[in-house]
Design brief:
heterodimer, A: 468 residues, alpha/beta, Amidase signature (AS) enzymes, 11-stranded mixed sheet, two-stranded antiparallel sheet, B: 146 residues, mainly alpha, elongated
C-alpha cells in the first residue's frame, strides 16, 4: 500500500511513476480503495465505491503497460465520477431519493472516454440531489448526507459536485469528474482547496449525464493542479454526435501538451467590484494572488463586468429548464420526496415562470454575451475570488447565511465561458480560498496558462488537509 | 439590413425609453439583493434561495406584479395544495413573491426586436493551440451567443 503522501501526488507525478514502472496501477488502486473505504463514509464523499470494476480496470492497465502499450498520462490513474453520469449496470442516483435505484444500460461519453484513456474508475462521487435543480437550503440535500470538508469536518465542501470536492481534497482518488450549471465545479474547488476546470459550453459531451439545464450544463475535472485539469480535459473533450449541443469537431477538440510558459505577457482583468462583499480574509488572499500574478510577469488591471441582469437571466433559465427537465417528477408530486425543504417545493414555483420570461432571459443572454466579447478584446482572462466566502458550516441555512453572490459565476456560465478555480490561500481558521480565472469561449489554454503561471510561483495547491 | 435596423432601434431606445445604462443603474439594487448559494446556484436555487424576509414583508411590487404573484400561488395550491402543509404554503408564497421581484428586474432590461435568444453558444473558428494571448484564441466572437 502506498502512503498518504503518495496518494496526494498530482496526476502528472503519478503518471510518470506508472509509465516508468516505479508504481503499479493495481497497488495504486488498492491504496486509494483502502483509503476511500476508511474515509469516504466519514466525509460522505462517495455515493458508491466500485472495487471490482476498479481492480479489473487496474489489472488491465497494468497488463497493457507491462506489454509496452502505454496509452498516456491517465493510464492506470484512479478517479471518481459524479453520480449523475451513467455507468452501465451500476446505480446512477443523481443524488436523489426518487432515483435511488435507477440504472442505465450504457456509459456516459465522458466515462467511455476515460476508459479509453486507461483511467481506473473507483466509484461514483456523492452530489447534491438533482445537482441542486430544485433548489436547496442545507448541505444535507443529498441522498448520502452532507459532504464534509477534509480541511474542517464541521464545514461543507460546497455543491453540487460535493463528493468530487471531498474526494480530491482528501486523496480518495487522483482526480474526479464534476459538473457545473452554475458554480458546481469551481465552488467545490474553492471550498476544498483544489483546482477545478469548467470547460467552454459544448466542449465536453453531456451524453449520459443528468440534464438539469440543457443550455448551461457543463462537465469538467477537479484535480490537484491546473496541469492535471488540462490533462483530464484533453481526454474528455471532443465532439459527440450524441449531444446536440456538442461543438463542431474542430472547436471541441482540445490538446494539452503539458504546462508551459505563456507565449507572451498575460493580460489579466481584475474585477474588484465583484468582491466588495467578500469576507476580509478572502479579500486579503485574493489581493495576494493579484500581487503574485504581477510578480510572475502578468499585466493585471482593474476592470468592470458589463452591466446587465446576468443573475436574473441565469436564474430564470436554470429554473425553467430544470422545471422542464424534471416536469414528471414535479407534476407527480414526487419532488416532495427530496431531502431538502426547499428542493421539495422549488419545482412548483419554477413551473409558474412563463415562456415569455424564459425567452426574455435567453434574449438578454445574447446581449450580455456580446458585451463580454468586447471585454475579452483587451484581456486574456478575467479574475476574482472564486467565492466571496470560505466553506460554510454543515448546518448553515444557505438561504439566510450566505447572501452573497459568487463573483463571476452568473456571467461566466451565462456566456458559456471556460474557467478555473485554483487555491490562493486560507482564512484565519485554515479554510481554503479560491482564485477564479475566466477566459473567452474556447479559451481553456488561456485559463490554464494563467493558472499554471500562478501555480509555478505559489505553493497553495501543494497544501494538504490535516492528516487523518 | 439587419444591422441598420439594430442601429435605429438602439437610437430610439436611447432617446425615448430606458437606456441600458439607465436600466443598469436601477437594476443594481435588485441584482445585489440576489442570494446565490455558492456553487449550488442551480435551477430553483438561484431564484428561490433568497434572503428570508421578515414576516409580512417582502420586496415591493406593483399592484400588477402582486396580482401575478397571487395568481401563481393560487395555481400552485390548486395543483399541489392537498399535499402541502401550512409551513410549505407560507414558504411558497414568500418565494413566489421574491421570484417575482427578479422577473420584474429582468423585464425592465431593454431588448430590441432583433435580439435573438442565445440558447446555443456559437463560436468563431478553431482556436490556436496553447496561445492565451494570441489574437485568434483570445479574441472572442463579436456575437458569441447569437
Amino acid at each position: 500500500m502506498y502512503v498518504e503522501e503518495t496518494l496526494y501526488l498530482t496526476v502528472g507525478e503519478l503518471a510518470e511513476r506508472i509509465r516508468t514502472g516505479a508504481m503499479t496501477p493495481v497497488e495504486l488502486t488498492e491504496s486509494y480503495l483502502e483509503r476511500a473505504k476508511r474515509l469516504g463514509p466519514r466525509w460522505n464523499a462517495y455515493a458508491r465505491l466500485m472495487p471490482e470494476i476498479a481492480l479489473e480496470q487496474a489489472h488491465a492497465a497494468q497488463r497493457e503497460i507491462r506489454a509496452g502499450r502505454y496509452r498516456g498520462p491517465l493510464h492506470g490513474i484512479p478517479y471518481a465520477a459524479k453520480d449523475l453520469l451513467a455507468v452501465r449496470g451500476v446505480p446512477t442516483t443523481w443524488g436523489a431519493r426518487p432515483y435511488a435505484t435507477q440504472q442505465f444500460d450504457f456509459d456516459a461519453t465522458v466515462i467511455a472516454r476515460l476508459r479509453e484513456a486507461g483511467a481506473v474508475m473507483l466509484g461514483k462521487a456523492a452530489m447534491i440531489e438533482l445537482a441542486g435543480g430544485m433548489g436547496y437550503r442545507y448541505a444535507s440535500a443529498s441522498l448520502t448526507g452532507a459532504a464534509k470538508n477534509p480541511w474542517n469536518e464541521g464545514c461543507w465542501t460546497c455543491g453540487s459536485s460535493s463528493g468530487s470536492g471531498a474526494i480530491v481534497a482528501g486523496a480518495l482518488a487522483a482526480f474526479a469528474i464534476g459538473t457545473e450549471t452554475w458554480g458546481s465545479i469551481v465552488c467545490p474547488a474553492a471550498f476544498c482547496g483544489i483546482s477545478g476546470l469548467r470547460p467552454t459550453y459544448g466542449r465536453v459531451s453531456r451524453h449520459g449525464g443528468m440534464v438539469l439545464c440543457a443550455s448551461l450544463d457543463k462537465i469538467g475535472p477537479l484535480a490537484r493542479s491546473a496541469a492535471d485539469c488540462g490533462t483530464v480535459l484533453a481526454a474528455i473533450a471532443g465532439h459527440d454526435p450524441k449531444d446536440a449541443s456538442s461543438l463542431p469537431r474542430e472547436q471541441a477538440a482540445f490538446a494539452y501538451p503539458g504546462p508551459g510558459a505563456p507565449p507572451r505577457r498575460l493580460r489579466v482583468a481584475w474585477i474588484p467590484e465583484q468582491m466588495k462583499d467578500a469576507q476580509p480574509d478572502v479579500l486579503a488572499a485574493a489581493d495576494n494572488a493579484r500581487r503574485a500574478l504581477q510578480a510572475a510577469g502578468a499585466s493585471v488591471r482593474n476592470a468592470k463586468l458589463p452591466e446587465g441582469p446576468w443573475e436574473q437571466a441565469a436564474s430564470v433559465i436554470v429554473a425553467v429548464e430544470g422545471a422542464s427537465a424534471f416536469d414528471d417528477l414535479i407534476s407527480s408530486g414526487r419532488s416532495l420526496e427530496l431531502a431538502d425543504p426547499l428542493g421539495k417545493i422549488g419545482g412548483f414555483i419554477n413551473q409558474q415562470i412563463s415562456g415569455v420570461d424564459y425567452l426574455r432571459a435567453q434574449r438578454a443572454r445574447g446581449v450580455l454575451q456580446r458585451k463580454m466579447g468586447e471585454l475579452f478584446r483587451d484581456y486574456d482572462v478575467i479574475a476574482a475570488a472564486t467565492e466571496n466566502v470560505v466553506a460554510t458550516k454543515l448546518s448553515a441555512n444557505l438561504e439566510t447565511e450566505i447572501p452573497i453572490a459568487d463573483p463571476l459565476g452568473a456571467i461566466g456560465n451565462l456566456c458559456g465561458l471556460p474557467a478555473i478555480s485554483v487555491p490562493c490561500g486560507f482564512d484565519s481558521t485554515g479554510l481554503p480560498v479560491g482564485l477564479q480565472l475566466v477566459a473567452a469561449p474556447l479559451g481553456e489554454h488561456a485559463v490554464l496558462a494563467a493558472a499554471e503561471l500562478y501555480q509555478r510561483h505559489t505553493e497553495w495547491h501543494r497544501r494538504r488537509p490535516p492528516a487523518v | 439590413m439587419k444591422s441598420n435596423r439594430r442601429r435605429k432601434q438602439t437610437a430610439r431606445t436611447e432617446e425615448g425609453g430606458l437606456s441600458r445604462r439607465e436600466f443598469a443603474r436601477g437594476a443594481t439594487v435588485a441584482a445585489a439583493a440576489i442570494a446565490v448559494i455558492p456553487g449550488g446556484a442551480l435551477a430553483a436555487t438561484a431564484l428561490t434561495a433568497l434572503p428570508q424576509q421578515p414576516a409580512g414583508e417582502g420586496p415591493k411590487l406593483s399592484p400588477a406584479a402582486m396580482a401575478e404573484v397571487e395568481a401563481k400561488v393560487a395555481e400552485i395550491l390548486r395543483r399541489y395544495g392537498d399535499r402541502l402543509d401550512e409551513a410549505q404554503k407560507a414558504d411558497i408564497r414568500r418565494l413566489v413573491r421574491e421570484t417575482q421581484a427578479h422577473l420584474e428586474a429582468l423585464r425592465a432590461f431593454p431588448l430590441e426586436n432583433s435580439d435573438e435568444p442565445a440558447t446555443i453558444l456559437h463560436l468563431p473558428g478553431p482556436p490556436a493551440r496553447h496561445a492565451p494571448a494570441a489574437p485568434a484564441a483570445a479574441k472572442p466572437s463579436v456575437k458569441p451567443g447569437a
